[in-house]
């Protein structure tokens, strides 16, 4: 085949594009589209890379995709998992001490129900980072942020309920029937379910409008 007299050969990574109104031997060399390659000179069409592979920057050959994620075997993954288990174990020990001495005045004065809710929610808060370690799946992708948001809301609302209980306890010294009724009825304890329901609604709206998903870029 005689060489072209009006066009240079197209190098790998490019494809021939005929010039309109000119001879067949006249063509332009256009780069291959994204994720397509040409590994020979003067190719008319580019080849698409198969699934699981992507084109290199020169578009001359396909490279295999490497899936990278934070695994339990990685040093960082092992460190985070160890810290999560360590802090949750410490909190569990504190919860066990509270349960063992639940009849003592100091535990009763600390509001047992709120203390138990706070400690249990803290245990699960410390375990939430485990959802971010390991091969990502659709289930863990959805649970990562929503689980921590709901459990952390329970922890914060229990602290808020404790604070309001202390404030009411100081206010009750003033002759005020409403303050005494709020403290006696355990009204501050309702802050936890109310805040948790609000967080559940917000998470539901977020999952309905823009849910997270596993993506391999």
TrEMBL record:
Sorted alphabetically, the keyword list is: Cell membrane, G-protein coupled receptor, Glycoprotein, Membrane, Receptor, Signal, Transducer, Transmembrane, Transmembrane helix
Where is it mainly found? membrane
Membrane topology qualifier = Multi-pass membrane protein
Compartments annotated for it: namely: Cell membrane
- Which branch of life, at top level? Eukaryota
Give any Pfam family that matches: 7tm_3
* Domain G-protein coupled receptors family 3 profile per the UniProt entry, residue ranges: 76-217
- Name the residues that span the membrane: 80-101, 113-134, 146-170, 190-209
Question: What InterPro entries does the entry give?
Answer: GPCR_3, GPCR_3_9-Cys_dom, GPCR_3_9-Cys_sf, GPCR_3_C, GPCR_3_Ca_sens_rcpt-rel, GPCR_3_vmron_rcpt_2
Single GO MF annotation:
G protein-coupled receptor activity
Cellular component, GO, one term: plasma membrane
The name of this protein is: G-protein coupled receptors family 3 profile domain-containing protein
User: Gene3D superfamilies annotated for this entry?
Assistant: GPCR, family 3, nine cysteines domain
């Amino acid at each position: 085949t005689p060489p072209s007299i009006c066009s240079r050969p197209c190098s790998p990574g490019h494809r021939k594009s005929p010039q309109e109104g000119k001879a067949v031997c006249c063509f332009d060399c256009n780069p291959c589209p994204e994720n397509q390659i040409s590994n020979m000179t003067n190719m008319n069409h580019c080849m698409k890379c198969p699934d699981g592979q992507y084109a290199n920057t020169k578009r001359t050959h396909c490279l295999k995709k490497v899936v990278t994620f934070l695994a339990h075997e990685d040093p960082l993954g092992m460190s985070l998992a160890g810290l999560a288990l360590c802090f949750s174990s410490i909190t569990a020990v504190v919860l066990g001490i509270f349960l063992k001495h639940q009849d003592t005045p100091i535990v009763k004065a600390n509001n047992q129900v709120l203390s138990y809710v706070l400690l249990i929610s803290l245990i699960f808060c410390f375990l939430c980072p485990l959802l971010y370690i390991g091969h990502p799946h659709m289930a863990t992708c959805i649970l990562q942020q929503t689980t921590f948001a709901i459990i952390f809301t329970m922890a914060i609302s229990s602290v808020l309920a404790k604070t309001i209980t202390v404030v009411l306890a100081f206010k009750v010294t003033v002759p005020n029937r409403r303050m005494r009724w709020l403290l006696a009825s355990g009204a501050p304890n309702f802050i936890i379910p109310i805040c948790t329901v609000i967080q559940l609604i917000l998470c539901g709206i977020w999952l309905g409008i823009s849910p997270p998903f596993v993506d391999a870029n």
